UniProtKB/TrEMBL annotation:
Residues 174-225 form the Phorbol-ester/DAG-type domain. SMART domains: C1, DUF4206. Keywords: Metal-binding, Repeat, Zinc, Zinc-finger. Gene3D superfamilies: 3.30.60.20. Interacts (via C-terminus) with PLEKHM1; this interaction is weak but increased in a RAB7A-dependent manner. Residues 53-88 are annotated as: Disordered. GO terms for molecular function: zinc ion binding. The keyword Zinc-finger applies. PANTHER family: DIFFERENTIALLY EXPRESSED IN FDCP 8 HOMOLOG, PLECKSTRIN HOMOLOGY DOMAIN CONTAINING PROTEIN. This is Differentially expressed in FDCP 8 homolog. PROSITE patterns: ZF_DAG_PE_1, ZF_DAG_PE_2.
C-alpha cells in the first residue's frame, strides 16, 4: 500500500555490510521493485488525468467518469502520494506533455488528409499555405508542408475531374477525341503544356492528328484538326524556310496570337523551319523534323526545329505521294544514283503488272500485295513521298524493291506457264530466248509494245516490223472494197 511505502522510504536506505552479499542483493532487488512500482503509479495517474488524443468519441467529462469508475477508491491522503524532496514533481498541464521526444506526435498535421469533400480539401489547402508561410525558410518542416500541399491539390483535382461522367467520344473543331484507358502512361497536354497524370486525371486523344489534352481543356481548344488540312490541301511548302519577318506577324504568335519577342519578353519567339513563321513557347516545343523542301532541292535530311502544328502535319504527310520530282527538280536524278536505280525498278514493276492482272495464280497468291505499303509504285513511276526519299537515302528502298522485282520476275519466267506463253520473240533476228519487256537487254516499241533485242532494234534504224505489218494491213483494208460497197 502507498502508506507502507512511505514508511519504508522515511526509514532511509537499507544498511548492510560489505561482506554480506546476500543482503546486498536483497536490498538491490527491493530498490528495483520500488522503482517499477513507482513508474506504474505515475503511468496510472497520467492515464487518469489525460484524455486520449486519438479517441474522438469520448469527451473529457466522460473520460473522467470512466476513469473514476475503473480506479479503486482511495482516501484523500492516499490519492496523491508524496514524492521525495529530491525528485521533481510530476504535473499535468492542458497541453500535450513532452515524452522526451523532439517531435510532436499528438498535434494535428498540416492539411486534412482525411478530408473527403471539396470544401474540406480547400480549407486544408489554405491552412497548409499559411503554415508554409509561417515556417522557417528551407527547413525540413516547410519542405514536408509543400509535399502535403501537392498531395492535397492532386486530390482536389481528382474530385473535380470525374472519370465516369465523361463521354468516350468528343468531336470539336473536326477533332475526334477518344477517352484514353491507359492510366500509367505519362503524357503532356498540348493545350496547357502541363503533365497529364493518368492515375487521377481524364484525358483525350484525337484519332486524326493525335492531339492530347485534359478533359478540362477540351472546351479551350482553338486549333482545328490537322488531318482535315491534309485531306483538303495535301501539298508541301517547297520553299526553304520562307521567312517574312516578325514584324509581318505584328510581333504575335502565328498560331495563338500571343505577344512574342526575340528577346524573350514577354515570351520567346521561336522560328519554324518549315513555315518560316514565329511561334510562342506553347505552340513551338523545339520538335525536330525533316523538311521536304530541303530534301527535294538539296538532298538534305538533317532534322530542323518546327512548331507543333507543322510537326503533326509533316507526320501525317510523310507517306503521301505528292512529290513529282521530275517537275520540281529534274537535275536531282543526275546527282543521286539511288533515285536512278529506283526509277528503273519501278518502271519494270509497271511492265509486270499486266501479267499479274490476267494471271489466275498470281491473283490467288496476291503478289501485288507485296507493295501494299507503297501503292503508288504500281500506278506510276513519277510520284514520291517523303518516306520514299528517306528510305532511298538510307538504302532500304532499293533493297526491298530489288527483292520484290526478283520475286515477280521468277513467277513470270519460271513458275507460271501462262505468263511464259505471253513472252516475245525478236522478229529482227529470230534467235535467242523468249523476251519480256522488263528484261535489261531488251527494247520495247512505244507504239505496239513489241519486244526486241536492244542491239537488233537500234541496228535496224529503230524500225518495228510489227508496226509496219499493222500499217500495211490497215492500208489493204481501205484499198480493197467489200462486195456490199460495189453493189
Amino acid at each position: 500500500p502507498p502508506g507502507r511505502r512511505r514508511q519504508q522510504r522515511a526509514a532511509g536506505p537499507i544498511q548492510c555490510s560489505e561482506g554480506d552479499g546476500a543482503a546486498y542483493n536483497v536490498a538491490r532487488a527491493a530498490a528495483v521493485r520500488w522503482d517499477a512500482m513507482e513508474y506504474d503509479e505515475k503511468l496510472a495517474r497520467f492515464r487518469q488525468a489525460h484524455l486520449n488524443p486519438f479517441n474522438k468519441e469520448i469527451g473529457p467529462r466522460q473520460h473522467e467518469q470512466r476513469a473514476s469508475k475503473e480506479a479503486p477508491e482511495v482516501t484523500s491522503e492516499e490519492a496523491l502520494p508524496e514524492l521525495p524532496p529530491g525528485e521533481p514533481e510530476f504535473r499535468c498541464t492542458e497541453r500535450v506533455m513532452d515524452l522526451g521526444l523532439s517531435e510532436d506526435h499528438f498535434s494535428r498535421p498540416v492539411g486534412l488528409f482525411l478530408a473527403s469533400d471539396i470544401q474540406q480539401l480547400r480549407q486544408a489547402i489554405e491552412e497548409c499555405k499559411q503554415a508554409i508561410l509561417e515556417l522557417p525558410e528551407q527547413s525540413e518542416k516547410q519542405k514536408d508542408a509543400v509535399v502535403r500541399l501537392i498531395h492535397l491539390r492532386l486530390k482536389l483535382q481528382e474530385l473535380k475531374d470525374p472519370n465516369e461522367d465523361e463521354p468516350n467520344i468528343r468531336v470539336l473543331l473536326e477533332h475526334r477525341f477518344y477517352k484514353e484507358k491507359g492510366k500509367s502512361v505519362k503524357q503532356t497536354c498540348d493545350r496547357c503544356n502541363t503533365i497529364i497524370w493518368g492515375l487521377i486525371q481524364t484525358w483525350y486523344t484525337c484519332t486524326g492528328c493525335y492531339y492530347r489534352c485534359h478533359s478540362k481543356c477540351l472546351n479551350l481548344i482553338s486549333k482545328p484538326c490537322v488531318r482535315s488540312k491534309v485531306s483538303h490541301q495535301a501539298e508541301y511548302e517547297l520553299n526553304i524556310c520562307p521567312e517574312t519577318g516578325l514584324d509581318s506577324q505584328d510581333y504575335r504568335c502565328a498560331e495563338c496570337r500571343a505577344p512574342i519577342s526575340l528577346r524573350g519578353v514577354p515570351s520567346e519567339a521561336r522560328q519554324c523551319d518549315y513555315t518560316g513563321q514565329y511561334y510562342c513557347t506553347h505552340c513551338h516545343w523545339n520538335d525536330l523534323a525533316v523538311i521536304p523542301a530541303r530534301v527535294v532541292h538539296n538532298w538534305d535530311f538533317e532534322p530542323r526545329k518546327v512548331s507543333r502544328c507543322s510537326m503533326r502535319y509533316l507526320a501525317l504527310m510523310v507517306s503521301r505521294p505528292v512529290l513529282r520530282l521530275r517537275e520540281i527538280n529534274p537535275l536531282l536524278f543526275n546527282y543521286v544514283e539511288e533515285l536512278v536505280e529506283i526509277r528503273k525498278l519501278r518502271q519494270d514493276i509497271l511492265l509486270m503488272k499486266p501479267y499479274f492482272i490476267t494471271c489466275r495464280e498470281a491473283m490467288e497468291a496476291r503478289l501485288l500485295l507485296q507493295l501494299q505499303d507503297r501503292q503508288h509504285f504500281v500506278e506510276n513511276d513519277e510520284m514520291y513521298s517523303v518516306q520514299d526519299l528517306l528510305d532511298a537515302h538510307t538504302g532500304r528502298l532499293s533493297c526491298s524493291l530489288t527483292e520484290t522485282h526478283t520475286l515477280f520476275a521468277k513467277h513470270i519466267k519460271l513458275d507460271c506457264e501462262r505468263c511464259q506463253a505471253k513472252g516475245f520473240v525478236c522478229e529482227l533476228c529470230r534467235e535467242g530466248d523468249v523476251l519480256f519487256p522488263f528484261d535489261s537487254h531488251t527494247s520495247v516499241c512505244t507504239d505496239c509494245s513489241a519486244v526486241f533485242h536492244r542491239d537488233c532494234y537500234y541496228d535496224n534504224s529503230t524500225t518495228c516490223p510489227k508496226c509496219a505489218r499493222l500499217t500495211l494491213r490497215k492500208q489493204s483494208l481501205f484499198r480493197e472494197p467489200g462486195p456490199d460497197v460495189d453493189a
